[in-house]
């Protein structure tokens, strides 16, 4: 077999304790024994990053992001060293690498830095000597020589970026689920594991609430055409491949159903209906770094006033209210109504580009269950609706059945 280069990434549950780290080492050894060049990327032990984040906010609620990064990056330092040791115990030449040692260069957006460039010279030299590199996920080095982190779940992005820089043949993401499913198997027992999913679809899945991969990691995989595989670190079986759409032979109209409880709905009642109003509302929100997702503006009855509804993440709701309430007089609206008892349910599939009636089937399935749709938004490969949160399970199950996704 030809020699391949593989990046293997292990998430927090896969390195949760010493026994699991030893089993990660055995999994890596198999690839090394098969003659492949291997770079391993590890997360912190599960729960550790949460604890580190909690400590920083206990000391300072509005903390200095540079020091936040210094603290939260430490989880990965521990697992990187332990994994290198576990490999050495199995007789494998292995060395740990922190973000700054490679270095993985990022911008200076502490807490959510973006990778700009990875120097691979030294890793290449070590590969040539048969050494395994164990790289700390989540960490980078900023332009001012300080430690940065890539945002929660950022080790996925570390792995994909490394795979792209090393021109790896594959990037395997080992996690506590065995692949990407047509929907959340905890809600729908008949959810099916997908053998393959296209980058574009995976990106929508990740953006619409599925938590398997960090969104940025999928964007990066798509941009650099990195072959990604999501698989279980506990079971020895193939996972889901995230690939170019050309590689997907049987394209269903809808590939899966995603949901996000992380939504809140804001309605501004009786907004003056004149040019420039939307800009004056969404401008300040953008300036405050608040991402607005779905938007509907009703037609006004009188021609003078209209209602405007949009969604933000639950975490941004309080700030959104503050920004708009501070400008109430200038904006001239009558009242602000906020509702965080909502869920966004989306159906996703590349097949939508060539099929009509996809949205209609969704509306009908929800209507049959008596579920009221509050807001709708669509893109080329997705239809999303906002419904009351108590209907989450009912809506997801109904849609999974309506699009013929239930396992036989
Ligand atoms: N340890 C970091 C986190 O929990 C990064 C990661 O696991 O991907 O967010
Ligand atoms: Mg993760």
Automatic annotation (TrEMBL):
<dbReference type="Pfam" id="PF01842">
    <property type="entry name" value="ACT"/>
</dbReference>
<dbReference type="Pfam" id="PF22468">
    <property type="entry name" value="ACT_9"/>
</dbReference>
<dbReference type="GO" id="GO:0004072">
    <property type="term" value="F:aspartate kinase activity"/>
</dbReference>
<dbReference type="InterPro" id="IPR036393">
    <property type="entry name" value="AceGlu_kinase-like_sf"/>
</dbReference>
<dbReference type="GO" id="GO:0005829">
    <property type="term" value="C:cytosol"/>
</dbReference>
<dbReference type="InterPro" id="IPR018042">
    <property type="entry name" value="Aspartate_kinase_CS"/>
</dbReference>
<feature type="binding site">
    <location>
        <position position="76"/>
    </location>
    <ligand>
        <name>substrate</name>
    </ligand>
</feature>
<protein>
    <recommendedName>
        <fullName>Aspartokinase</fullName>
        <ecNumber>2.7.2.4</ecNumber>
    </recommendedName>
</protein>
<feature type="binding site">
    <location>
        <begin position="211"/>
        <end position="212"/>
    </location>
    <ligand>
        <name>ATP</name>
    </ligand>
</feature>
<dbReference type="InterPro" id="IPR045865">
    <property type="entry name" value="ACT-like_dom_sf"/>
</dbReference>
<keyword id="KW-0808">Transferase</keyword>
<dbReference type="InterPro" id="IPR001341">
    <property type="entry name" value="Asp_kinase"/>
</dbReference>
<dbReference type="GO" id="GO:0009088">
    <property type="term" value="P:threonine biosynthetic process"/>
</dbReference>
<comment type="pathway">
    <text>Amino-acid biosynthesis; L-methionine biosynthesis via de novo pathway; L-homoserine from L-aspartate: step 1/3.</text>
</comment>
<dbReference type="GO" id="GO:0009089">
    <property type="term" value="P:lysine biosynthetic process via diaminopimelate"/>
</dbReference>
<feature type="binding site">
    <location>
        <position position="49"/>
    </location>
    <ligand>
        <name>substrate</name>
    </ligand>
</feature>
<dbReference type="InterPro" id="IPR005260">
    <property type="entry name" value="Asp_kin_monofn"/>
</dbReference>
<feature type="binding site">
    <location>
        <begin position="9"/>
        <end position="12"/>
    </location>
    <ligand>
        <name>ATP</name>
    </ligand>
</feature>
<feature type="binding site">
    <location>
        <position position="181"/>
    </location>
    <ligand>
        <name>ATP</name>
    </ligand>
</feature>
<keyword id="KW-0028">Amino-acid biosynthesis</keyword>
<dbReference type="InterPro" id="IPR001048">
    <property type="entry name" value="Asp/Glu/Uridylate_kinase"/>
</dbReference>
<feature type="binding site">
    <location>
        <begin position="175"/>
        <end position="176"/>
    </location>
    <ligand>
        <name>ATP</name>
    </ligand>
</feature>
<feature type="domain" description="ACT">
    <location>
        <begin position="266"/>
        <end position="350"/>
    </location>
</feature>
<keyword id="KW-0067">ATP-binding</keyword>
<comment type="pathway">
    <text>Amino-acid biosynthesis; L-lysine biosynthesis via DAP pathway; (S)-tetrahydrodipicolinate from L-aspartate: step 1/4.</text>
</comment>
<keyword id="KW-0418">Kinase</keyword>
<feature type="binding site">
    <location>
        <position position="186"/>
    </location>
    <ligand>
        <name>ATP</name>
    </ligand>
</feature>
<comment type="similarity">
    <text>Belongs to the aspartokinase family.</text>
</comment>
<keyword id="KW-0457">Lysine biosynthesis</keyword>
<dbReference type="GO" id="GO:0005524">
    <property type="term" value="F:ATP binding"/>
</dbReference>
<dbReference type="InterPro" id="IPR002912">
    <property type="entry name" value="ACT_dom"/>
</dbReference>
<dbReference type="InterPro" id="IPR041740">
    <property type="entry name" value="AKii-LysC-BS"/>
</dbReference>
<dbReference type="InterPro" id="IPR054352">
    <property type="entry name" value="ACT_Aspartokinase"/>
</dbReference>
<keyword id="KW-0547">Nucleotide-binding</keyword>
<dbReference type="Pfam" id="PF00696">
    <property type="entry name" value="AA_kinase"/>
</dbReference>
<dbReference type="GO" id="GO:0009090">
    <property type="term" value="P:homoserine biosynthetic process"/>
</dbReference>
């Amino acid at each position: 077999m030809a020699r391949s280069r593989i990046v293997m990434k292990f998430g927090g549950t896969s390195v949760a304790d010493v026994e699991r780290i030893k089993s990660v080492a055995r999994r890596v050894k198999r690839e090394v024994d098969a003659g492949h060049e291997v770079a391993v990327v590890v997360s912190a032990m599960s729960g550790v990053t949460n604890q580190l984040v909690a400590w920083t906010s206990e000391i300072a609620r509005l903390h200095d992001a540079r020091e936040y990064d210094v603290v939260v990056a430490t989880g990965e330092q521990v697992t990187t060293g332990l994994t290198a040791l576990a490999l050495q115990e199995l007789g494998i030449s292995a060395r740990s690498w922190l973000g700054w040692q490679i270095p993985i260069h990022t911008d200076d957006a502490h807490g959510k830095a973006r990778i700009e460039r990875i120097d691979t010279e030294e890793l290449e030299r070590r590969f040539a000597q048969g050494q395994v590199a164990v790289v700390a996920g989540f960490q980078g080095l900023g332009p001012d020589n300080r430690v940065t982190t890539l945002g929660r779940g950022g080790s996925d992005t570390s792995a994909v970026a490394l795979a792209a820089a090393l021109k790896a043949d594959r990037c395997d993401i080992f996690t506590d689920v065995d692949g990407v499913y047509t929907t959340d198997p905890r809600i729908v027992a008949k959810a099916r594991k997908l053998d393959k999913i296209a980058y574009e679809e995976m990106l929508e899945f990740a953006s619409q609430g599925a938590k398997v991969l960090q969104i940025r990691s999928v964007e990066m995989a798509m941009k650099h055409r990195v072959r990604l595989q999501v698989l279980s670190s506990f079971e020895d079986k193939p996972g889901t491949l995230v690939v170019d759409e050309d590689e997907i032979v049987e394209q269903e109209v809808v590939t899966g159903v995603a949901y996000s409880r992380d939504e809140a709905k804001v309605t501004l009642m009786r907004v003056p209906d004149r040019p420039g109003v939307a800009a004056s509302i969404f401008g300040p929100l953008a300036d405050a770094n608040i991402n607005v997702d779905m938007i509907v503006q009703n037609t006004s009855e009188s021609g003078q006033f209209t209602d405007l509804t949009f969604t933000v993440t639950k975490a941004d709701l309080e700030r959104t209210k503050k920004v708009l309430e501070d400008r109430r007089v200038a904006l001239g609206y009558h009242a602000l109504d906020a509702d965080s008892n909502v869920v966004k349910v989306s159906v996703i599939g590349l097949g939508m580009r060539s099929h009509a009636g996809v949205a209609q089937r969704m509306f009908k399935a929800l209507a049959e269950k008596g579920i009221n749709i509050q807001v709708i938004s669509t893109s080329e490969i997705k239809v999303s609706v906002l419904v009351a949160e108590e209907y989450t399970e009912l809506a997801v199950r109904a849609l999974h059945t309506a699009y013929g996704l239930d396992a036989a």
